[in-house]
Amino acid sequence: MLKSLQISGFKSFAKKTELEFKSQITAIVGPNGSGKSNVAEAFRFALGEQSIKSMRGKRGEDLIWNGSAEVSRAGRASVKVVLDNKNNLFSAVSKATEGGDFEEAVIERVVNRDGTNEYYLNGSLVRLKDIIELLANAHIGASGHHIISQGEADRILSANMKERKEMVEDALGLKIYQYKREESERKLAKTEENIKQVESLRREIAPHIRFLKKQVEKVEKAEELKNKLSKFYREYLKREKIYLDTQKNQLAKEKNPVIERLVQLEKEMEEAKRILANSAKKDEKSEELIAIENKIKNERDSRDKLYRDIGRIEGEINANRRNIERIEAEQRSEETKTIPLREVEELEKEISQYSEVTKIIQKIRDFIIKHKTNFNSKNLNEIIENNQNLENKKIEIEESIKIIDNTLTNFTAEYQQIKDSIEREKDSSREAEKNIFKISGEQSETRSKLELLKEKEYRLNLEENDWKLQIQEGGVLLGTAILGFENETLTEENQSENFSSNNFTNLEPREKQEERKKELERMKIRLEELGGAGGSEVIKEYKETSERDAFLAKELEDLKKSAESLQQLIKELLEKLDVEFREGINKINKTFQEFFSMMFGGGEAKLEIIKNYKLKAKNPIEEEIENTEEQKPEEGIEINVSLPRKRIRGLDMLSGGERALTSIALLFAISQVNPPPFIILDETDAALDEANSKKYGDMIESLSKVSQLILITHNRETMSRAGIIYGVTMGRDGVSRLLSIAFDEAVTVAK
Ligand code: ATP
After folding, report:
1. Which among 240, 226, 199 is positioned nearest to 486, based on CA atoms?
2. CB–CB of 299/408 below 8 Å?
3. Please, how many CA atoms are within 13 Å of residue 435, restricted to the half-sphere of its CB?
4. Which residue's CA lies nearest to atom 9 of ligand 1?
């Protein structure tokens, strides 16, 4: 298994030195201080030992050949351990060196003066970890149970129970489980730390999420309300528009005829007034009438005078005729009669007072009768002529009367005409007055109708303004969606065929729409209370935060799962450790007992697992310190021995030799249960007497069947059991040298 060791620049091995291990037992012999222990330490070094102290140094540099008067110091120390890999025991070799089947596993460690280390596996630079894993797989543990340094033989005896347990575990190859367990525990601790962090993070954001959730609920409520309101709003606006349009149309329909009527009435009034104004001319006509009346009177007066003249003339004519007749008669009777002028003038005066012709004629007749007898003296001719003249005058006057009659006829006709006209005008003025009265009545009635309509119009305008304001407000509150109100379908009870027609609002009492408006306002207030529309930021934040929370929850779940599986793994590892440990202890005990009774010719030796013990303090001060620390009860290993024929129990009562034998027996027992490929024993046999050296030799031989042995020794008996003996010498130059020697030489060399 172990093929060779190559040392170069390590400690006293200034020059490259190679040891081959062709035998199962190799002995290394030589005088004190020649460098034998350095060989054992070279093994430790190459196999990854990290404690410089265990290699008797303080710093890495102490491991490098430090030079002497003759040989200058080295820059680096290198040790190679060559192991046989025919059985592919070091499967990790190919893994670590990236492929290739290797017959040998060459482990090399180099330390430089600056303290840096390099590890090589078959010439490839690897990490220490790779080396440790590789060796652990081959039961070459780091605790170095397979390399027993000088004076360390009874280390297992002097160690405390816990340390012993570790040593046994290491020897049993359980360390790998321990590593895994520790790693799992580290991972678990980290996982639990993460769990705590995630939990605390979740706790931290939880109130925020709750707060956001409430906000979001509010926003959603607001959104819902907003949608409801939006629809309701559009419906309201549409209804209002229909109402306004209808009302306006209706108003226009009502108003236009009223205005037209008013215009008409105004015209009629003007006309009536004009007519009334015209009737003022009747006074003029009255004057005209009076003038004509006067004219008629004048004409009549003239005519009366003319009639009187005619009467007088006719009287004169008659008187003349009678005078003529009388004269003629007188003439015939020659009788003539004369009437004084004074009397005639009196007569004339008298008749002039009469207007009636007959009276005038009577007077004249009376006068004539009275004066009949006096009249015949007048000149007849004169009278005739006079009469002729009177006749002419009479005709003349009659002509004038005729003219006057004509004039009167004309005047009367004219008079009648004016009078008729006046009558007529009187009628029409009365009509006009009546009309004016009637018209003004209708006017005021129509005006008040118009006022009513205007009032209605005013209210309608107010309503329209309100409607416009509602649109604006709605736009601000709910966005432009509100403007689509005209396309809104109305959902409520009035969705009949009639609804779209303009008279639909007539079907619906106005109060309903007013009720709707109130509801609208209530909804607006509620929306305001809910913080209005919007809030997409809150929703976004809630989404992000709850996504983060969900992510954390998922992470927490994963972490918990992995914590669980780690706990499970740890549990399994512990179980495995426990089982294998107990099995191992049983096996060790069997061999330990054999070796022990072989050594002591009887007696009993046994390892015992102690549970839940408390580590004993080494001194009172430590005790105090340890007691203050929380110490969890652990398992440990107690060694129980009883020597044959001696009443000795317990390790403390053993002699130095007995102690050495016991520890050797135990070490060998442990090694046999899970044999490492090689064991290096540095003067474990130093304390043995001859008889015991023989027994030790026997043990070595049986041990060599399972592990290769490298024995650093001064013991003759031990040397005798070795297949190969190396002698180590050191010259004046301080350099250790190696020589392969025969057994006979060895005894001398050893000294
Ligand atoms: P013993 O039989 O007394 O146990 P040994 O053969 O085991 O002796 P070692 O202890 O291996 O001897 O060797 C000790 C020698 O190695 C000492 O002489 C010491 O000076 C030498 N030595 C140790 N470290 C170095 C170093 N870095 N450079 C040179 N020499 C060193």
Report:
1. 240
2. yes
3. 18
4. 35
In whole angstroms, what separates CA 218 from the centre of its chain?
12
Cβ neighbours, 10 Å, residue 717: 19
CA 280–ligand 1 middle distance (angstroms): 167
Question: Which residue has a Cα nearest atom 22 of ligand 1?
Answer: 12
734 lines ligand 1 (CB under 6 A): yes
Atom of ligand 1 nearest to the CA of 150: 4
pLDDT in tens, 665-677: 888 888 888 788 8
**86, amino acid identity:** K
Helices (H) and strands (E) in the chain, counts: 18, 14
Neighbours of 70 (CB within 10 A): 11
Inform me whether the pLDDT recorded for 205 exceeds 60.
yes
Q: What is the dihedral of CA 638, 676, 584, 578, to 10 degrees?
A: 90
C-alpha 376: how far from chain center: 159
Which residues sit opposite 738 in a β-bridge? 728
Does residue 474's CB lie within 6 angstroms of at least one atom of ligand 1?
A: no
Give percent helix, percent strand, percent coil of the chain, each to the nearest 5.
Answer: 65, 10, 20
Residue 354: which pLDDT band, with cuts at 50, 70 and 90?
confident
Is the shortest distance between the CB of 513 and ligand 1 below 6 Å? no
Q: How far apart are CA 308 and CA 297, in angstroms?
A: 16
Q: Count other Cβ atoms within 10 Å, centred on residue 281.
A: 12
Which residue in this structure is represented by tokens 């600056």?
114
Residue extents of the structural domains in the chain: 282-426
Atom 27 of ligand 1, residue of closest alpha carbon: 11
Q: 32: CA distance to ligand 1 center in Å?
A: 8
Phi, psi of 740 (to 5 degrees): -85, 125
Expressed in angstroms and rounded, the spacing between residue 38 Cα and the centre of ligand 1 is 6
Distance (Å, whole) CA 269 – CA 515: 48
Mind listing the pLDDT tens digit for each residue in 447-493? 999 899 899 999 999 999 999 998 888 888 888 878 888 887 776 55
686 C-alpha vs ligand 1 centroid, how far in Å? 18
